[in-house]
């Protein structure tokens, strides 16, 4: 994706908010869950009753540190919370408890694809903060309804430096963040549900210059595609203004999904003075070396590294590698199987094909899946050695193995009498029967309709109840038809 | 009913059958009936509830299962959450609000069978030094003569003073327990910051707010502290320092060294009777062979500005939750969201609270933050360091609790800075987070009580309470 402007250089900084999938809220024991009936997870603490105090959720701190380690950040030895003051009905305390001066993770970077090469995107920080509730403008009641279930749930805000130079990089960065979030299990990273949200600071500057141009902040983007569309629209809008000799106004703009355009929401003059100051209800949190060592020991190999290994050591395509690196379960399953089975590409095909489809259809995870890597190895060997044909293996045998977790692939195939028929004389009989039953088609084939071969193979398969070896069948059909 | 000045007196009369718990509560209720209309110390009396509870406690006493506070009738300042009961912080903005849980320190007292007989009037959101800033109207000092009781826990001090209860739980941010105690001739105690959980205490300035005790006796103060103090999963700032058996503290028997701040004891704001009463104490201490370390307090001129910058900054955020959206008062004249906020808060908060919110908002504003808030934080550290260093080398700091005895109602209406000057001697210990106590130290020529303040190092409450008892019995 190339931005149209040639005179200007695009500079983007992203603020990515990730909801953390902790059991309870950041400062209260209320349940942190999406989709519950409105105002059911709201204790006096969430509702900011007088006399209530915050108590930090250790799991949220742990998740933030994990994200920081995954993004190559320095983890603060002491981290503290601040109050960000503003009035809005969805903000019960009249301030948001967030981190200003001492964020939990400092600096950091992620490498993302940019065109044909990789680019390193530097981070400024990752900090922990609480989410607000939800306002719903309700026409029937001619007013606004408030749901405080989300109020006080934990977020991390990941802030990049202004170093992103294309919409593609922005998209790839969010994709990578989402992949890590899901891989580490710290969140579900679902943008449509708002569990991953993104604001972008966008500016242009004349090519070759170093000073940053006036930035515009775009909020309210609910998909990676929309982040990219918003950036592209801003490039067009801002370069048009600059071409006319106009200046860019510092403002907050919203992105409209329907029109693909951004519109002004708030100018700098209307901006809040948030009056940040240290939250006196929360002591600074010390992150000890031993605690950090403990978390580091829990860190799995990360997706980017897994993808690299899958491509370089196992010769998988980038597409396959990306899918396998989506979760720790998948990566483990692959590596485990690959230790005992050298048909790497086939393992990937089985995982991405029948296994993934089955799990998705039955809403199961790999952890619950009964075909172990050892059994999959057995199954792949049967296919690769020509004893089972793939379509039978991936349907009847596969399902029967799931239904009978005690049996191996060979036992299942044997019990179902599904071993491939490699006996040429037996197959020749079936071939002859099939061709005799379709004289018209045979004539047409001989006149040049070579595409009918598929039909003949299919008929032989049907007659053999799926046991015919497809290669031998094709060979025999060709021989017989050319007689 | 006869006057009771300690729980041990009450318990011994109950034990001897002179009085039952129910009769005790009836006695206090009768005091309330005859005095509260005039004094206005209680905003709500839990008559039926207290009588029911009294019968239960009596039953427990009879069968030997009573808690350590059985027979202690208390009142609580209108800033504490008390499940199912109105909490209004003496403000219109909390109209109709009822607590959905009980504050940790209050619950701990209830668990030991204290009986809550009523809710004390106070200054709105604990902001004030005269208890004139209340939606319930001013509290009057039981000494009469149209005097204020001090504030902000004025209702608590008067309830103890006028024997509407034995003990009251107040709150002390910059002197709100000690100064009214001084004005009303009772004991007022503020522990080390973090000694008692703030969970359930309406926040004024979070890094200053302390649960405080008003009582007639040091023993009762010690027992209440012992029960209320200690770790609490709901308060991240509460200390995990071991809670000693304060009520069993040994008698004070040692020689000691006290700090006397020369520039405080000769401060121009000090009333002559107050000065004489302090001088008398120092003279006696010296005569008894103890050491007096005379020194100027370096930052005296900075204590009030530092206190008011930091407390109002914190208050401006702490009071943002009172916005008409979720509970309490909401204006009926709103046109849109913005006017709902403005009108609700303008109509709901009293003048003093508005003033402090505005001041706090100002000192946190962009461009002013460093000049005010950051600087005040630094000065607070200097104040604390100097106080603590003096207390490393001396046992106590002794100074007047307030520069004057109780003053006339409405006398500071025109000059609020004069009113702020009332706090000059109490905010120092609050800035440093140190434990301190105000003990009655005689009266002036008009019979107005005067208090003397003793300050100790952090978490040395045991020492402070032992010494207070000694001071009361042997020196004052």
UniProtKB/TrEMBL annotation, chain A:
Keyword set, alphabetical order: ATP-binding, Ligase, Nucleotide-binding, Protein biosynthesis, Transferase
Enzyme class: ligase
Domain of life assignment: Bacteria
GO BP terms in the entry: translation
Pfam family, one: GatB_N
Asn/Gln amidotransferase domain boundaries: 332-481
Coiled-coil regions listed: none
GO molecular function terms attached to this record: asparaginyl-tRNA synthase (glutamine-hydrolyzing) activity; ATP binding; glutaminyl-tRNA synthase (glutamine-hydrolyzing) activity; transferase activity
Catalytic activity: L-glutamyl-tRNA(Gln) + L-glutamine + ATP + H2O = L-glutaminyl-tRNA(Gln) + L-glutamate + ADP + phosphate + H(+); L-aspartyl-tRNA(Asn) + L-glutamine + ATP + H2O = L-asparaginyl-tRNA(Asn) + L-glutamate + ADP + phosphate + 2 H(+)
Record-linked SMART domains: GatB_Yqey
InterPro entries: Asn/Gln-tRNA_amidoTrfase_suB/E, Asn/Gln-tRNA_Trfase_suB/E_cat, Asn/Gln_amidotransferase, Asn/Gln_tRNA_amidoTrase-B-like, GatB, GatB_Yqey_C_2, Gln-tRNA_amidoTrfase_suB_CS, Gln_synth/guanido_kin_cat_dom
Enzyme Commission code(s) on record: 6.3.5.-
Record carries keyword Transmembrane: no
TM region(s), chain numbering: none
Subunit details: Heterotrimer of A, B and C subunits.
HAMAP family: GatB (MF_00121)
NCBIfam families named among the record's database cross-references: gatB, PRK05477.1-2, PRK05477.1-4
Family: Belongs to the GatB/GatE family. GatB subfamily.
PANTHER family named in the record: GLUTAMYL-TRNA GLN AMIDOTRANSFERASE SUBUNIT B MITOCHONDRIAL AND PROKARYOTIC PET112-RELATED
Function: Allows the formation of correctly charged Asn-tRNA(Asn) or Gln-tRNA(Gln) through the transamidation of misacylated Asp-tRNA(Asn) or Glu-tRNA(Gln) in organisms which lack either or both of asparaginyl-tRNA or glutaminyl-tRNA synthetases. The reaction takes place in the presence of glutamine and ATP through an activated phospho-Asp-tRNA(Asn) or phospho-Glu-tRNA(Gln).
Designated name of the protein: Aspartyl/glutamyl-tRNA(Asn/Gln) amidotransferase subunit B
Taxonomic lineage from the root: Bacteria, Pseudomonadati, Bacteroidota, Cytophagia, Cytophagales
Annotated gene: gatB
TrEMBL record, chain B:
GO biological process terms, semicolon-separated: translation
Pfam families for the chain: Amidase
Gene symbol of the encoding locus: gatA
Family classification: Belongs to the amidase family. GatA subfamily.
Name listed for the protein in its UniProt record: Glutamyl-tRNA(Gln) amidotransferase subunit A
NCBIfam families linked: gatA
Gene3D superfamilies registered for this protein in UniProt: Amidase signature (AS) domain (3.90.1300.10)
Example of a GO cellular component annotation carried by this entry: glutamyl-tRNA(Gln) amidotransferase complex
Reactions catalysed: L-glutamyl-tRNA(Gln) + L-glutamine + ATP + H2O = L-glutaminyl-tRNA(Gln) + L-glutamate + ADP + phosphate + H(+)
Keyword Kinase tagged: no
This protein's record includes keyword Oxidoreductase: no
Documented EC number(s): 6.3.5.7
Domain Amidase as annotated: residue spans: 23-465
Keywords: ATP-binding, Ligase, Nucleotide-binding, Protein biosynthesis, Transferase
Alphabetized SUPFAM superfamilies for the sequence: Amidase signature (AS) enzymes
Subunit structure: Heterotrimer of A, B and C subunits.
Gene source species: Reichenbachiella agariperforans
Active site (UniProt): 77 (charge relay system), 152 (charge relay system), 176 (acyl-ester intermediate)
């Amino acid at each position: 994706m190339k931005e149209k402007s040639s005179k200007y250089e695009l500079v983007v900084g992203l603020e990515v908010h990730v909801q953390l999938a902790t059991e309870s809220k950041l400062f209260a024991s209320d349940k942190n869950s999406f989709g519950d009936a409105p105002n059911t997870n709201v204790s006096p603490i969430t509702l900011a009753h007088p006399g209530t105090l915050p108590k930090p959720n250790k799991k949220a701190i742990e998740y933030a540190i994990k994200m920081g380690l995954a993004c190559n950040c320095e983890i603060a030895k002491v981290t503290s919370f601040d109050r960000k003051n503003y009035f809005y009905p969805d903000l019960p305390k009249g301030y948001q408890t967030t981190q200003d001066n001492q964020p939990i993770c400092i600096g950091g970077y992620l490498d993302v694809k940019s065109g044909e090469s990789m680019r390193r995107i530097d981070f400024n920080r990752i900090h922990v903060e609480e989410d607000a509730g939800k306002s719903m403008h309700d026409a029937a009641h001619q007013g606004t309804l408030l749901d405080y279930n989300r109020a006080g749930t934990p977020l991390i805000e990941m802030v990049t430096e202004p170093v992103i130079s294309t919409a593609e990089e922005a998209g790839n960065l969010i994709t990578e963040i989402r992949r890590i979030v899901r891989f580490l299990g710290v969140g579900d990273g679902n943008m449509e549900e708002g569990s991953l949200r993104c604001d972008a600071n966008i500016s242009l500057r004349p090519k070759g210059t170093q000073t940053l141009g006036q930035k515009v902040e775009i909020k309210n983007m609910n998909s990676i595609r929309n982040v990219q569309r918003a950036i592209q629209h801003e490039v067009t809008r801002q370069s048009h203004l600059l071409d006319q000799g106009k200046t860019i106004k510092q403002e907050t703009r919203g992105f409209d999904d329907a029109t693909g355009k951004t519109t002004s929401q708030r100018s700098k003059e209307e901006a809040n003075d948030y009056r940040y100051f240290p939250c006196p209800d929360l002591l600074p949190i010390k992150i000890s070396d031993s605690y950090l060592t403990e978390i580091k020991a829990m860190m799995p190999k990360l997706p980017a590294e897994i993808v690299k290994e899958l491509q370089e050591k196992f010769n998988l395509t980038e597409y396959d590698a990306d899918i396998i690196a989506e979760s720790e379960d998948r990566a483990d399953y692959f590596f485990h199987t690959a230790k005992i089975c050298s048909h790497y590409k086939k393992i990937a095909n089985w995982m991405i094909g029948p296994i993934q489809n089955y799990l998705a259809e039955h809403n199961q995870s790999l952890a619950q899946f009964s075909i172990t890597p050892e059994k999959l190895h057995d199954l792949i060997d049967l296919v690769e050695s020509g004893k089972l044909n793939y379509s039978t293996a991936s349907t009847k045998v596969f399902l029967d193995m799931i239904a009978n977790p005690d049996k191996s692939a060979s036992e299942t195939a044997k019990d179902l009498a599904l071993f491939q028929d490699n006996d040429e004389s037996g197959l020749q009989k079936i071939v002859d029967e099939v061709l005799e039953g379709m004289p018209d088609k045979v004539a047409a084939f001989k006149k040049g309709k070579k595409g009918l071969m598929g039909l003949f193979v299919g008929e032989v398969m049907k007659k053999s109840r799926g046991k015919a070896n497809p290669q031998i069948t094709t060979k025999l059909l060709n021989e017989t038809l050319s007689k | 009913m006869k006057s009771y000045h300690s729980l041990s007196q009450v318990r011994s009369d109950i034990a001897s059958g002179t009085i039952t718990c129910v009769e005790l509560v009836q006695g206090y209720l009768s005091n309330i009936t005859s005095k509260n209309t005039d004094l206005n110390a209680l905003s709500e009396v839990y008559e039926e509830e207290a009588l029911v509870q009294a019968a239960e406690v009596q039953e427990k006493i009879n069968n030997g299962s009573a808690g350590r506070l059985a027979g202690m009738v208390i009142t609580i300042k209108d800033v504490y959450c008390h499940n199912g009961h109105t909490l209004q912080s003496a403000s219109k903005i909390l109209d109709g609000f009822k607590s959905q849980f009980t504050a940790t320190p209050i619950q701990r007292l209830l668990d030991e069978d204290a009986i809550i007989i009523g809710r004390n009037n106070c200054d709105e959101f604990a902001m004030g030094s005269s208890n004139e800033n209340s939606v319930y109207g001013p509290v009057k000092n039981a000494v009469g003569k149209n005097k204020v009781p001090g504030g902000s826990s004025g209702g608590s001090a008067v309830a103890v003073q006028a024997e509407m209860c034995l003990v009251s739980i107040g709150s002390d941010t910059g002197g709100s327990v000690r100064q009214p105690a001084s004005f009303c001739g009772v004991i007022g105690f503020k522990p080390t910051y973090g000694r008692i959980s703030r969970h359930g205490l309406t926040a004024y300035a979070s890094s200053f707010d302390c649960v405080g005790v008003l009582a007639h006796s040091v023993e009762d103060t010690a027992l209440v502290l012992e029960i209320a103090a200690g770790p609490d999963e709901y308060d991240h700032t509460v200390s995990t320092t071991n809670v000693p058996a304060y009520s069993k503290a040994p008698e004070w028997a040692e020689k000691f060294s006290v700090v006397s701040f020369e520039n405080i004891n000769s401060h121009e704001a000090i009333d002559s009777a107050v000065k004489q009463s302090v001088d008398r104490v120092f003279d006696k201490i010296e005569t008894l062979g103890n050491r007096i370390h005379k020194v100027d307090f370096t930052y005296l001129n900075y204590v009030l500005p530092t206190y008011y910058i930091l407390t109002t900054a914190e208050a401006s955020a702490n009071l943002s939750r009172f916005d008409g959206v979720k509970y309490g008062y909401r204006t009926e004249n709103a046109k849109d969201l913005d006017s709902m906020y403005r009108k609700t808060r303008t109509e709901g908060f009293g003048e003093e609270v508005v003033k402090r919110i505005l001041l706090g908002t100002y000192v946190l504003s962009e461009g002013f933050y460093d000049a005010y808030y950051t600087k005040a934080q630094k000065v607070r550290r200097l104040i604390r360091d100097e106080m603590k260093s003096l207390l490393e080398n001396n046992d106590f700091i002794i100074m007047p609790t307030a520069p004057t005895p109780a003053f006339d109602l409405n006398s500071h209406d025109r000059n609020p800075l004069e009113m702020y000057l009332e706090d000059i001697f109490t905010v120092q210990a609050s800035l440093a987070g140190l434990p301190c106590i105000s003990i009655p130290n005689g009266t002036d020529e008009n019979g107005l009580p005067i208090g003397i303040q003793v300050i100790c190092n952090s978490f040395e409450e045991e020492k402070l309470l032992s010494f207070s008892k000694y001071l009361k019995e042997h020196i004052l």
